[in-house]
């Protein structure tokens, strides 16, 4: 049987390509995005990932000493604070209702695959966007830079956990389905920017 990660990559490829054709993400690396548009993108990402991470946390608690996933919503909140969004205003950011409020373990892992995978993509945008918008990981660019973390190591740890957990619990189909539907929901949510 083909490796889960290969099947996942193939399953989400159309959604991955679609998200990169969205004007905001297509224009971000070129520097043709105003700071206000960047802030709006971060608000949309916060509105998508905040309910997802809350549902994931209920099933797969984040433990810093043995992290198989790393919350990214705090990084979005940090960036938004730098861009002038008060912590009290985070509650008023609209939330995506297309994500499951309660998840099974396979769904949580499928969404985490998207989140952890996008961490790699964010790092690729890194230098270009930092210069174009005059941001740093500590001043408005923590989410996309993963706050300076060793992204490759984090990805490796997550991949190993995903493979072993999926195999032991027979979750391959659930994970693939959740990744596809999660990416489709993210694309629709970001299209509404």
Question: Nutshell version of this structure?
Answer:
With 193 residues, the protein is mainly α. It has helices spanning 4-20, 23-27, 35-59, 73-82, 105-133, 142-145, 151-169, 172-191.
Any chance you could write out the topology, listing elements then pairs?
Layout (H helix, E strand, L loop, with lengths): L3 H17 L2 H5 L7 H25 L13 H10 L22 H29 L8 H4 L5 H19 L2 H20 L2
Helix pairs in contact: 1-8, 3-4, 3-5, 5-7, 5-8
Can you walk me through this structure?
The chain has 193 residues and is mainly α. 67% of the residues lie in helices and 0% in strands. It contains 8 helices and no strands. The radius of gyration is 16 Å and the shape is globular. The mean pLDDT is 90.
Oligomer: single chain
**How many alpha or pi helices?**
8
Q: Encode the helix/strand succession as letters.
A: HHHHHHHH
Largest sheet: none
Low-pLDDT residue spans = none
Alpha-carbon distance between the termini? 40 Å
Let me know the average pLDDT. Answer: 90
- Helix fraction? 55-70%
Would you report the number of β strands?
0
In what range is the share of β-strand residues?
Answer: under 5%
> Class by helix and strand content?
mainly alpha
Q: Which of globular, elongated, flat, extended, rod-shaped describes the shape?
A: globular
**What's the alpha carbon Rg, rounded to whole Å?**
16 Å
Which structural traits does this protein have?
193 residues; globular; mainly alpha
């Amino acid at each position: 049987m083909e490796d889960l990660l290969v099947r996942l990559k193939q399953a989400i490829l159309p959604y991955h390509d679609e998200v990169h054709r969205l004007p905001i993400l297509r224009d971000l690396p070129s520097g043709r995005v105003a700071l206000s548009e960047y802030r709006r993108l971060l608000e949309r990402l916060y509105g998508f990932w905040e309910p997802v991470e809350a549902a994931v946390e209920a099933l797969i608690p984040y433990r810093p000493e043995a992290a198989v996933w790393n919350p990214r919503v705090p990084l979005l909140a940090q960036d938004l604070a730098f861009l002038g969004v008060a912590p009290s205003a985070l509650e008023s950011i609209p939330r995506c209702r297309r994500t499951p409020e309660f998840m099974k373990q396979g769904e949580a892992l499928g969404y985490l695959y998207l989140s952890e995978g996008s961490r790699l993509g964010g790092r690729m945008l890194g230098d270009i966007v930092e210069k174009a918008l005059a941001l740093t990981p500590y001043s408005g660019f923590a989410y996309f830079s993963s706050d300076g973390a060793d992204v490759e190591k984090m990805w490796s740890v997550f991949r190993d956990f995903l493979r072993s957990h999926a195999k032991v619990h027979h979750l391959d189909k659930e994970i693939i389905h959740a990744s596809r539907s999660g990416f489709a929901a993210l694309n629709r949510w970001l299209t509404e920017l």
